[in-house]
Amino acid sequence: MTDLKVANDMVVRVHYTGTLPETGEVFDSSEGRDPLTFLVGHRKMIPGFEEEMMGAVQGERREFVLEPERAYGHPNDELIAEFPKSDFAQLEESGVEIEIGMTLVAQTFQGPAPFMVTAVNDEMITADFNHAMAGKTLAFSVEVVELRQATEEEISHGHAHGPGGVEH
Q1: Domain ranges, residue 21
Q2: What's the pLDDT at 166?
Q3: Is residue 163 part of a domain?
């Protein structure tokens, strides 16, 4: 066992379970999957998650709750837009009926942008591009499975390589 601790420029592998504290509903978990691997300090995780894991050692388990400000933020009205229903004609012609609550993906110049349909009428569709977890308080149970210093290449690329990271 080494005395490495979670810090910037470390590659961390964790098993985690995320729940909504109000209901106890699990919204994400690595249970039954490979551990989550990330490079600390390179904006790959929500800010509060990294903050709460700082200083943890291999084998340590931490439990914490993140308010929206430290997770996905609060919903932003500027991320809600209306589009003519005719923009979705191809989708509807393929037999898909657009309904409230559906998650679709818009192709933008910045890449794919998922959104939730929040209103539909004969002429317009309202799309909410806020993250699905925006405005929510999140609880996590996290165990550090593996910890190592990142390589110079990983630091320059801004992500972990190898098992659980980006493959070459």
Answers
A1: 10-72+133-157
A2: 55
A3: no
Q: Do 54 and 137 reside in the same domain of the chain?
A: yes
Total count of domains within the chain = 2
- Predicted confidence (pLDDT) per residue in 115-154, tens digit: 999 999 999 999 999 999 999 999 999 999 999 998 899 8
C-alpha 14/C-alpha 52 separation (Å) is: 13
- 52 and 66 in contact (C-beta within 8 Å)? yes
Q: Are residues 60 and 111 in the same domain?
A: no
Note the pTM of the prediction, 2 decimals.
Answer: 0.81
